Each structure stands twice: as C-alpha cells, then as structure tokens.
Amino acid sequence: MSASYDEPATLPRKSLKRGLVVWLVGVLSALLLVDAWYSYRDALAAANQAYDRSLSASLKGIAERIYATESEVVVDIPYSALELFEAGSSDRVFYGVSYEGGEQITGYEGLPMPPALQPNVAVFYDGVYNGQALRLGAMLKPLYRTEFPRPVIVILGETTNSRHEVVQSLFFGEIGRKALLVVVALGVALLATRQAFKPIERLGGAIRSRPDDDLTPFAADEVPREVAPLVHAINQHMGRINKMVGARRRFIADAAHQLRTPLAVLNTQAEYALRQHEEITMRPAVEAFHRSLGGAIRLTNQLLSLSRAEPVNGLVMVPQPVDLAALARDMVVDLLPLAGRKHIDLGVDGVAGEGGETATVSGQAVLLRELVANLIDNAIRYTPEGGLVTVGVARAVDETGAAWVILTVSDNGPGIPPAERERVFLRFFRLDGSDHTGSGLGLSIVREIVLGHGGEITLDDGPDGRGLRVMVRLPAA
After folding, report:
1. How far is Cα 449 from Cα 369, in angstroms, rounded to an integer?
2. What is the CATH number of the domain that holds 462?
3. Rounded distance, CA 471 to CA 58, Å?
4. The total number of structural domains that make up the chain
5. DSSP code of 219?
6. CATH number at residue 287
7. What is the pLDDT of residues 269-303, one digit of tens each?
C-alpha cells in the first residue's frame, strides 16, 4: 500500500493556537480598558479629596475672619488662605464674598454659584470662570447682626492644572503597572499554550512520519485529556480502514491464488484446440475449454460476491425492506432448470406470506438474492440425481419477543459431518471426497451476507436425519 495524501491548498486552515492568542489579547485588552476607566475615576477622586481639604481649610480661614460692625462688613483675608499662591504652583486662585442674593462685597465678580448652601458647611463643585475650569468651594457665613440680617457667601476657587498633573501621575503609574502585569500574564499564557500544544504537534509528527501501510493505533497517554477523544476517533477510523485494507488484500490474494490455475488450464486448452486441424478433434477441446471457462466465470463471480458481502468493505448501502418469501420463490423458479438436469425435486414448503404473514427483512436485495441462490445451488450440486431439495421461509418470535424471519434449505444428499460443519464456512474449504468442481466459496459468501445483516446461520441434519438443513435467521423488519 503506497499512497500519499497532501493537504488541499485551497482549504483555509484555522489555527487554534493563533485563535487562542487573539482571544486572550482581546479579553485582556478589554479588561485593561475597563480598568483604565475605573483607575482614572479613582485617581481623580483621590486628587479632588486631597486638594479639597486644602481648599476647605482656606475657605474656613477666610470665613472665620469675616465679621460685621454697626456700619459695615469687614473681610480680612488671612495669610494662611493665600498659601495656594506659593511659588511653583501652576494654578490661579479666585475668591469672592457677597451677600446672599448676589450683591458683591469683595473679590472677583461673577464666580459660579453653588447649587445649595447650609450655614457653616463647605460645599465643593466644578465650574468655569472666564474660560478656565475651576474647582470651587463655597460656604454660607451668618453675620449675627440685626444691621446685616442676610448671611454672606464665601467662594474660593482654583484652576485644576495641579489636580490634573496629580491625576495623570497616579493614572499612568497605575496603568503602567497593570499593563506590565497584562503583558507578563499574556507571555505566561502563550508559554503555557505552547507547552499544551506540544503533545498535539508530536502526534501530528508521528502521523506524518508513519509509513503508508502502518495503521496501528496511536497511544493517547501523552496527549491532553481534551484531545484523547480525537485520538480515539482517529484510532477507530484507522481500525475501519485497516479492516477494509485487509479485505482488499484477502480478495487480491484469493483472486491471485484461485484464478491462476483456471487461467492456466484455459490457456492450455486453447493452445490444444488451436493445434487441431479437423473439426471432429477440435470439438472436444472446445467443449472442455467452455466448461473450464464457465468454472472460471463462476469462481470470479463468487470472489466478487464474497468481497462485496464483507461488511468491512463498506459496500452495503442503506438497507431497504426485502420480502424474503417472494425472493425465495423467485430463486426456486430461476433454478428449476438446474435441478431438472439432475431430476431433483426442487420446491417450496411453508413459505411465509401465503397466509397474509409477512416475511420482510431490512437489507440489500442483491446480497440477499446471492445468499438464497448460493444455498439452493449448493444443495442442488451436492444432492444426487433424483434427490429432494426443499426451501422454506417462516416467521418466529424468540423468548425476548424479537421477531425473526427464518430461511431453511433442506436436502437429502450426503450431508456434512458435525465435526466439519464449522470448517465449511472457511474460504475454499472442500470436504474430502466431495465434488471438486465447486470453489468452496458458497457458504463463506452466505455467512458474510448473514453477518452483514445481523443474522445467524446454523447447519443441522436434513429430514429424517439424512442430508443437510441450512437455517438462516434474519431480524424481521
């Protein structure tokens, strides 16, 4: 067996390893993006919390130095509230003090107002002043003077440059560490994937390096547990191929062995006939040639039938309902001339279907016809002149309730000794002293067809203990 199978170049190949890597990269990238959003939000919250504390301290310092006299409201900005103006800061500070209702007392006018205020409680919010983004704090300061019944609102704001620098520092530091962790995790995953696929790559190398005729099973011990079912499936498929290859080899060996002698005889008889110059001497040689040719044709047909009947060859197509009773009657009619030449009484007895009882089986009509034909032909060949051959088909139900169709072919010939009844199913086996014109394949073909249809075949004594009775049981459809 020498054949090579190349992978079709037109078929797209999907790399499981590459797909796994792409999937990991996509998942980790998505997780990193989600984490980046949360990290930025947390960094901004942390920066606001830290800077809002300083803003709150300055706001309270200003509010504590606001008081009212009999004639005016005094606003004394303490030095501690101006610490935000220290050198090195990139932010600007804006402040404003006004009466509740909008009348400005001091500071920058038009600063964004808070949504709601409570006395002596600092409120922080975001706003925009003169095109600049601000973080502002506001507090409602009661004056506790009858001359000034309205409280004042203290607003202090700063630009957000320093906050953004802190946020970026925290954010990029956090994202950098997590990105490095993702890269390390991806590298570990790739290494683990490579290690996990090594047994599969070794299995592929073992398959490629095997000889064409090596169909022995592969060991599934070194492959991952998830790949073991694939290895078992490959082994089962190789087992089926091995059986089919074995059947082909048996057919070739049988044909080479069995056809060599008939072909040599045919060649010799043809040469002998060609050497004759008169018709009276040529005719016996031609008749012998014709008989030998018929035997060779029958042997060839039986070899082909045997090869086709073996289930491992995969030649049995989808089964169809077959009426075995009608098939048996037809074969009896077809073989009546052969029985007539030996004055054998060939008939049917108790064939199912005549009383409305069906004898339908599920199988291949061609193979079942070959089965019945071989049984009847064998019976006629081995029954002496004036003998009796009877064919019967009936239905039966066993103790488990399963329905069977039973085909019987009985004769009153010499029969087969009980010790030889198992051996007659072997290929090319002939009984000692029997007619050697046969090929010894008839019962082998019958058994293969019966096994292929899930049936059984047994050999017993014929009627009154004489001859042979062949009984075939096939599952009823």
Report:
1. 10
2. 3.30.565.10
3. 112
4. 3
5. P
6. 1.10.287
7. 777 777 777 777 778 777 777 777 766 676 666 66
